[in-house]
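Aim 2 progress update. The chain analyzed this quarter is reproduced below.
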Amino acid sequence: MSETKSGPVTAALAGSPALGAKFEAFRSAAHDALGEEMVAHIRRAISEVHGVDAPVPMGEAPEIMLAYARRMPFEHTAITDEEAAAVLAELGEEKFVAFSVVAALFDAECRAEKVDLAGLSS
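Predicted structure tokens:
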């Protein structure tokens, strides 16, 4: 179910196939834990913060989770225990961890795209 191997981080890791494969396995596991629809919502929320285009996802996602995702790139240290607890209650512990990982990885992908990480690493 996880998305095809792509993105600026994956491209930057092309010179290290073993590391690239480990990154893809880690990313795929987090995506698989949440499902394609939730991953698409997180991608959209993070991309909007960075001003990067992303497809509009199907369906709805709880606003508390989208708000949490939008804060991850630049306001992660300001997320309160109460905000995190609300998302945790919505998702459960395993999916909450996956949600945080997916948000952090999309943040990294947006940043890598903006600085052309793949070009810098070649």
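The chain has one domain: 8-120. The first helix runs from residue 8 to 12. These observations will guide the mutagenesis experiments scheduled for the next reporting period.
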